[in-house]
Amino acid sequence: MKYTTLLLILFLGLTSCKSTKNVTSDVAIKELSARKVAKKHIATNFDKKTVDARLKVNYKNNKESLGFSVRMKIKKDEVIWLKGTKIISIFKAKITPTKVQFYSPYEKSYFDGDFMMLKKLLGTDINFKQLQSMLLGEALMDVKSERQEVKIQEKSYQLSPKKQPTLFDLFFYVNPKHFKLNKQLIVNSLKDQRLDISYPKYHKKNTTFFPEKINIKAKEKNKFTIIDITTRSVEYDTKLNVNFNIPNGYKEIQI
Question: What digits encode the pLDDT tens for the residues 224-248?
Answer without folding.
Answer: 888 999 999 999 999 999 999 999 9
